[in-house]
Amino acid sequence: MTSLSLCTKIVWLVEVEKFDGLIFDNDSYLNYLEMTDTREALIRAKRWMLPPDSQARTEQIYFVLRSVMTIGRDATEETLKELKEWRRMCARNAEILQMLPEFHENPPLPTWATGAVDQVRQQLRPKFPNVDEITVKATLDPRLYVRSYQANNQIQISVLFRELLRTINLGIWNAIVAPDSWRELRDGRLPEDCFLPYFLPLYWNIPWSRIPTMRANSKHAAMLAINCVRLQMTFMIAHEFAHLLLHEAGRSGPELEAEADRFAYEVLFRDPGENASVGDVWMSSRWLFEILALERTISWRLSGNDGMPLTGDHRRETLLFPFARAAGPSMVDVNLGGRGLIWLSNTRAAIADLTPVALRQRAQQWSTEMMAG
Amino acid sequence: MKDLTLELEIDPVDPGTRAGLIVDVDSEALSRCGVAVHIEKSEDGHGFGVSEIITIGVAVASGVASDLVASAITEATNGVIRRVRSRRGRSDGSVEGIAGLVDDERRREPDTPPDEVSKQ
Predict the structure, then answer these.
(1) Do residues A347 and A168 lie in contact, with contact meaning Cβ atoms separated by under 8 Å?
(2) Average model confidence (pLDDT) for chain B?
(3) φ, ψ at B71 (rounded to 5°)
């Protein structure tokens, strides 16, 4: 991925280039794609052995694989053809992966997770030599979660979570780099529907393959979304490492969560990793909590609840401030991060203003559209 | 009497509460409409975010309407139900959604595999 320098970011604020191509997410699922190389013949012979839930899982794997490629807003016919070809390959590979016993029982860590886990382990090893005893497992659970289990010293990560998060980050960057979206926000025209269809398969029987494709307004928006999600996933993984390294089984509560957050911020601010600045850590962490709050608001409304989610997340956010103050993010990052935050919180407020019935109606419209393809 | 299994994803009012207190199996709302609920399984560990997965077994008398069962489960939950999964379906945590799943499960023969059901 191209280096994300400060000067480049400043240029993006004033100039949006035409983007008619495709961006390949190198951080994502290269190892998954390699697994399918020589297995097709074997799989064809075993097709009859498919378990009953295999279709849903195949759709989930397809969603994950297809997310590797992001298409530009101004895509040409030629680019669209290329994307269709890529997706055909993803569909075939998803079917193969679903039938591989080693993948079905225990999906390997995708490339992005290996990178994040290695980064965290490397930093913790000098102080916690037992860090390598903790195992990390990928799941296809349709849920926004990273979770640690003391009983078997394991962290589990949903790969679907990462791809939803990347998509939402892309939506934020799209709004930031496109002057039109920014003007709409400033004038009070809020995109309250814009994230709804992406979350719906979490609650309803909508196949993951039907999630709409979010196009990138610029090449940089796509790259920045990948960078943001890398930092967010690393933050959550480091947070779970903290629970396993510092906390006894059976204990829980806000103090423990705060301690795990501080631990994770320390890891990230000490070394944000390749192509990232402390400003990126500040921005992506703030967005992460706001995205989760937005999703909770949607799920509360869909559940028929017209209150606001009672959440400690806002208090948790303030734990970031001492780290950010000490690290000193650039004004450009503060500005960009602030724009994203305003956009997200206004979107959340617009959804919160809807009654449960109104949101369900909108969700129903989306569902019908998505199922119609 | 019909026994169903539902997997609930819940935002507890107080994160860190144990499963037996998140879903109050002795709730008056449940006994009022003749629904018996027991906790079959709850999640271990710490999760980023706040939701908890709790699997409940539900015994419902045949004369009780599914929307009453759904209301009672919602009322007995100390938190917001985000999502519900049954053996064959999924819904959001709304009373209508849960009632739909309960209804669907009650109409099925207990041992009919999902594949057979979809052909019916």
Answers:
(1) no
(2) 84
(3) -60, -45
Q: Which CATH class is domain B2-109?
A: alpha beta
The reply to whether residue A145 touches residue B92, judged by beta carbons under 8 angstroms, is: no
Range with lowest mean pLDDT among A221-230, A296-305, A311-320: A311-320
In this predicted complex, what is the ipTM? 0.82
What is the residue extent of each domain of chain B? 2-109
Q: How many CA atoms lie within 13 A of A20 on its CB side?
A: 8
Q: What is the pLDDT of residue B15?
A: 65
Contact yes or no for A143 and B113 at CB 8 A: no
| pLDDT at A46 (0 to 100) | 58
Q: Report yes or no: A107 and A117 within 8 Å, Cβ to Cβ.
A: no
Report d(CA A224, CA A49) in Å as an integer.
42
Q: Phi, psi at residue A337, to the nearest 5°? A: -60, -40
* Helix orientation angle between A254-270 and A219-246, rounded to the nearest 10 degrees: 130
Q: When comparing pLDDT for A366 and B2, which is higher?
A: A366
Crossing angle of the two packed helices A159-177 and A331-353, in degrees rounded to 10 = 110
pTM for this model (two decimals): 0.89
pLDDT grade for A4, boundaries at 50, 70 and 90: low
The predicted structure's pLDDT at residue B116 = 43
**What distance in Å separates residue B39's CA from the closest CA in chain A?**
18
DSSP string, A51-107: -TTHHHHHHHHHHHHHTTEEEBTT--HHHHHHHHHHHHHHHHHHHHHHH-HHHHHSP
Chain A neighbors of B16, CB-CB under 8 A = 252-254
